[in-house]
Amino acid sequence: MIPLWGWIKRGYLRLVEPIASLLVRYRVHPNVITTLGTCCAIGGGVIYGAGHISIGGWFLGLTALFDVIDGDVARRTGLSSAFGAFYDSTLDRIADAAVLAGLAVFYATSPKHASEPMLVVCLAGIVGGFLVSYTRARAEALGIDAKVGIMQRPERVVLLSAPQAFFGLAFDGWVLAAIVVVLTVTSWATAVQRVAAVYRATRPASGVAITPPPHFSRATPAQPRAALKSK
What is the value of pTM for the model shown? Predict the structure, then answer.
Protein backbone atom coordinates (compact mmCIF):
# COMPACT_ATOMS: atom_id res chain seq x y z
CA MET A 1 0.00 0.00 0.00
CA ILE A 2 2.71 2.48 1.02
CA PRO A 3 5.05 1.67 -1.93
CA LEU A 4 2.08 1.98 -4.30
CA TRP A 5 1.16 5.36 -2.82
CA GLY A 6 4.79 6.52 -3.15
CA TRP A 7 4.83 5.43 -6.78
CA ILE A 8 1.59 7.34 -7.49
CA LYS A 9 2.89 10.44 -5.74
CA ARG A 10 6.19 10.44 -7.65
CA GLY A 11 4.35 9.96 -10.93
CA TYR A 12 2.01 12.87 -10.18
CA LEU A 13 4.94 15.11 -9.24
CA ARG A 14 6.63 14.35 -12.55
CA LEU A 15 3.38 15.12 -14.34
CA VAL A 16 2.97 18.57 -12.78
CA GLU A 17 6.67 19.49 -12.91
CA PRO A 18 6.28 21.67 -16.07
CA ILE A 19 3.55 23.69 -14.35
CA ALA A 20 5.69 24.15 -11.24
CA SER A 21 8.65 25.27 -13.36
CA LEU A 22 6.46 27.81 -15.14
CA LEU A 23 5.23 29.25 -11.84
CA VAL A 24 8.81 29.43 -10.55
CA ARG A 25 9.93 31.21 -13.71
CA TYR A 26 7.28 33.88 -13.27
CA ARG A 27 7.91 34.10 -9.51
CA VAL A 28 4.32 33.38 -8.55
CA HIS A 29 4.10 33.61 -4.78
CA PRO A 30 3.33 30.23 -3.13
CA ASN A 31 0.66 31.84 -0.94
CA VAL A 32 -1.20 32.79 -4.12
CA ILE A 33 -1.04 29.16 -5.25
CA THR A 34 -2.31 27.99 -1.85
CA THR A 35 -5.20 30.45 -2.01
CA LEU A 36 -6.16 29.32 -5.52
CA GLY A 37 -6.07 25.70 -4.40
CA THR A 38 -8.41 26.45 -1.51
CA CYS A 39 -10.81 28.32 -3.77
CA CYS A 40 -10.84 25.31 -6.11
CA ALA A 41 -11.57 22.98 -3.19
CA ILE A 42 -14.48 25.18 -2.14
CA GLY A 43 -15.70 25.09 -5.74
CA GLY A 44 -15.45 21.30 -5.69
CA GLY A 45 -17.52 21.23 -2.52
CA VAL A 46 -20.17 23.37 -4.22
CA ILE A 47 -20.23 20.96 -7.19
CA TYR A 48 -20.66 18.04 -4.80
CA GLY A 49 -23.44 19.84 -2.98
CA ALA A 50 -25.25 20.37 -6.30
CA GLY A 51 -25.19 16.60 -6.86
CA HIS A 52 -22.62 16.47 -9.68
CA ILE A 53 -20.41 13.94 -7.94
CA SER A 54 -18.37 12.70 -10.90
CA ILE A 55 -17.72 16.22 -12.22
CA GLY A 56 -16.74 17.34 -8.74
CA GLY A 57 -14.31 14.46 -8.41
CA TRP A 58 -12.57 15.26 -11.69
CA PHE A 59 -12.48 18.97 -10.81
CA LEU A 60 -10.88 18.29 -7.43
CA GLY A 61 -8.45 15.80 -8.90
CA LEU A 62 -7.24 18.21 -11.57
CA THR A 63 -7.00 21.22 -9.26
CA ALA A 64 -5.23 19.21 -6.54
CA LEU A 65 -2.01 20.20 -8.31
CA PHE A 66 -2.18 23.52 -6.46
CA ASP A 67 -1.95 21.65 -3.17
CA VAL A 68 1.03 19.66 -4.46
CA ILE A 69 3.16 22.35 -6.08
CA ASP A 70 2.86 25.25 -3.62
CA GLY A 71 5.52 23.74 -1.38
CA ASP A 72 7.76 22.95 -4.33
CA VAL A 73 7.46 26.50 -5.64
CA ALA A 74 8.16 27.87 -2.14
CA ARG A 75 11.39 25.89 -1.91
CA ARG A 76 12.61 26.66 -5.42
CA THR A 77 11.90 30.39 -5.16
CA GLY A 78 13.32 30.71 -1.64
CA LEU A 79 9.99 31.98 -0.35
CA SER A 80 9.49 29.38 2.37
CA SER A 81 8.52 31.01 5.64
CA ALA A 82 6.93 30.28 9.00
CA PHE A 83 3.86 32.27 8.00
CA GLY A 84 3.66 30.40 4.70
CA ALA A 85 3.60 27.07 6.51
CA PHE A 86 0.95 28.38 8.91
CA TYR A 87 -1.13 29.82 6.07
CA ASP A 88 -0.91 26.59 4.09
CA SER A 89 -1.99 24.45 7.06
CA THR A 90 -4.89 26.78 7.87
CA LEU A 91 -6.24 26.79 4.33
CA ASP A 92 -5.83 23.01 4.11
CA ARG A 93 -8.35 22.70 6.92
CA ILE A 94 -10.78 24.97 5.07
CA ALA A 95 -10.37 22.97 1.87
CA ASP A 96 -10.97 19.60 3.53
CA ALA A 97 -14.01 20.87 5.42
CA ALA A 98 -15.48 22.50 2.31
CA VAL A 99 -15.43 19.25 0.34
CA LEU A 100 -17.05 17.21 3.11
CA ALA A 101 -19.53 20.03 3.73
CA GLY A 102 -20.51 19.80 0.08
CA LEU A 103 -21.13 16.07 0.46
CA ALA A 104 -23.14 16.79 3.61
CA VAL A 105 -25.33 19.21 1.64
CA PHE A 106 -25.73 16.54 -1.04
CA TYR A 107 -26.95 13.98 1.48
CA ALA A 108 -29.25 16.55 3.06
CA THR A 109 -30.90 17.78 -0.14
CA SER A 110 -30.66 15.07 -2.81
CA PRO A 111 -34.14 13.91 -3.83
CA LYS A 112 -32.88 10.35 -4.43
CA HIS A 113 -29.86 9.94 -2.15
CA ALA A 114 -30.88 11.99 0.88
CA SER A 115 -29.72 10.17 4.02
CA GLU A 116 -29.64 11.37 7.60
CA PRO A 117 -27.10 8.71 8.65
CA MET A 118 -24.73 9.77 5.85
CA LEU A 119 -25.24 13.40 6.77
CA VAL A 120 -24.08 12.54 10.30
CA VAL A 121 -21.11 10.61 8.88
CA CYS A 122 -20.08 13.64 6.81
CA LEU A 123 -20.27 15.93 9.84
CA ALA A 124 -18.26 13.41 11.86
CA GLY A 125 -15.73 13.35 9.02
CA ILE A 126 -15.32 17.12 9.20
CA VAL A 127 -14.66 16.91 12.95
CA GLY A 128 -12.28 13.98 12.43
CA GLY A 129 -10.32 15.90 9.82
CA PHE A 130 -9.85 18.82 12.20
CA LEU A 131 -8.81 16.43 14.97
CA VAL A 132 -6.14 14.86 12.76
CA SER A 133 -4.59 18.28 12.22
CA TYR A 134 -5.07 19.54 15.77
CA THR A 135 -3.55 16.52 17.50
CA ARG A 136 -0.39 16.81 15.43
CA ALA A 137 -0.11 20.59 15.93
CA ARG A 138 -0.72 20.32 19.66
CA ALA A 139 1.85 17.54 19.96
CA GLU A 140 4.44 19.58 18.06
CA ALA A 141 3.78 22.50 20.42
CA LEU A 142 4.83 20.15 23.22
CA GLY A 143 7.95 19.10 21.35
CA ILE A 144 6.57 15.70 20.24
CA ASP A 145 6.52 14.36 16.72
CA ALA A 146 3.05 12.90 16.18
CA LYS A 147 3.08 12.45 12.42
CA VAL A 148 1.59 8.99 12.66
CA GLY A 149 -1.65 7.39 11.60
CA ILE A 150 -3.26 5.60 8.71
CA MET A 151 -4.90 8.68 7.16
CA GLN A 152 -2.52 11.52 6.34
CA ARG A 153 -3.69 14.49 4.29
CA PRO A 154 -2.50 13.26 0.85
CA GLU A 155 -4.57 10.11 1.32
CA ARG A 156 -7.58 12.22 2.31
CA VAL A 157 -7.22 14.33 -0.83
CA VAL A 158 -7.14 11.20 -2.99
CA LEU A 159 -10.19 9.69 -1.27
CA LEU A 160 -12.12 12.93 -1.65
CA SER A 161 -11.58 13.08 -5.41
CA ALA A 162 -10.40 9.97 -7.30
CA PRO A 163 -13.17 7.45 -6.44
CA GLN A 164 -15.85 10.07 -7.06
CA ALA A 165 -14.31 10.96 -10.43
CA PHE A 166 -14.34 7.37 -11.65
CA PHE A 167 -17.45 6.02 -9.97
CA GLY A 168 -19.68 9.02 -9.25
CA LEU A 169 -22.97 7.66 -7.98
CA ALA A 170 -22.40 4.16 -9.36
CA PHE A 171 -24.19 1.24 -7.71
CA ASP A 172 -26.92 3.58 -6.52
CA GLY A 173 -24.46 5.74 -4.59
CA TRP A 174 -23.05 2.94 -2.43
CA VAL A 175 -19.48 3.53 -3.65
CA LEU A 176 -19.63 7.18 -2.59
CA ALA A 177 -21.17 6.26 0.77
CA ALA A 178 -18.48 3.65 1.41
CA ILE A 179 -15.70 6.14 0.61
CA VAL A 180 -17.15 8.73 2.98
CA VAL A 181 -17.49 6.14 5.75
CA VAL A 182 -13.90 4.94 5.23
CA LEU A 183 -12.62 8.51 5.24
CA THR A 184 -14.46 9.34 8.47
CA VAL A 185 -13.48 6.16 10.31
CA THR A 186 -9.81 6.38 9.33
CA SER A 187 -9.66 10.08 10.25
CA TRP A 188 -10.91 9.34 13.75
CA ALA A 189 -8.60 6.33 13.96
CA THR A 190 -5.65 8.55 13.01
CA ALA A 191 -6.59 11.06 15.69
CA VAL A 192 -6.74 8.25 18.26
CA GLN A 193 -3.36 6.94 17.09
CA ARG A 194 -1.84 10.37 17.58
CA VAL A 195 -3.34 10.72 21.05
CA ALA A 196 -1.87 7.32 21.90
CA ALA A 197 1.52 8.34 20.50
CA VAL A 198 1.58 11.47 22.65
CA TYR A 199 0.50 9.46 25.69
CA ARG A 200 3.35 7.00 25.18
CA ALA A 201 5.86 9.82 24.65
CA THR A 202 4.82 11.64 27.82
CA ARG A 203 4.75 8.63 30.14
CA PRO A 204 7.58 8.77 32.69
CA ALA A 205 8.57 5.23 31.79
CA SER A 206 9.13 6.20 28.16
CA GLY A 207 12.43 7.83 29.01
CA VAL A 208 11.60 10.83 26.84
CA ALA A 209 12.03 14.11 28.63
CA ILE A 210 9.36 16.59 27.61
CA THR A 211 9.84 20.22 28.53
CA PRO A 212 6.59 22.15 28.10
CA PRO A 213 6.89 25.63 26.59
CA PRO A 214 6.82 28.62 28.98
CA HIS A 215 3.44 29.43 30.52
CA PHE A 216 2.05 26.06 29.39
CA SER A 217 -1.13 24.86 31.06
CA ARG A 218 -3.75 22.26 30.29
CA ALA A 219 -6.37 24.99 30.01
CA THR A 220 -4.49 27.42 27.75
CA PRO A 221 -2.92 26.03 24.58
CA ALA A 222 0.76 26.77 24.29
CA GLN A 223 2.01 28.89 21.44
CA PRO A 224 3.49 26.64 18.76
CA ARG A 225 7.17 26.93 18.16
CA ALA A 226 8.09 28.80 15.01
CA ALA A 227 9.36 26.15 12.66
CA LEU A 228 10.53 27.14 9.22
CA LYS A 229 9.34 24.46 6.91
CA SER A 230 8.43 24.24 3.29
CA LYS A 231 4.82 24.72 2.37
Answer: 0.81
